């Protein structure tokens, strides 16, 4: 244990491995310090991946905006962005 008194359903000393197992089963609300540091590392990794994905989405959004056809004097707002078709 980490030296702190915890109130949970475990009334005997256990190793960190068993404590983490009991935490995952909902029998205690106190995971081991190693379990917490693994969670923090996982969360930090996910944060970095989310930032990378958001940057990629933003880059593609800017490219899509940049590639939109610009209206010419001959196009009305209704036909803006649509391919040209001959009038029949």
Structure description:
Helix content is 51%, strand content 0%. It has 88 residues and is an all-alpha fold. It has a domain at 16-66. The protein is rod-shaped. The termini are far apart. The mean pLDDT is 79.
List the helices and strands and how they pair.
Blueprint: H1 16-25, H2 33-67
The secondary-structure class comes to mainly alpha
Instruction: Give the overall pLDDT as a whole number.
Output: 79
Q: Count helical runs.
A: 2
So what's the overall shape? rod-shaped
Kindly summarize this structure in a few lines:
This protein is mainly α. The protein is 51% helix and 0% strand. The longest helix has 35 residues, at 33-67.
Provide keyphrases for this structure.
88 residues; mainly alpha
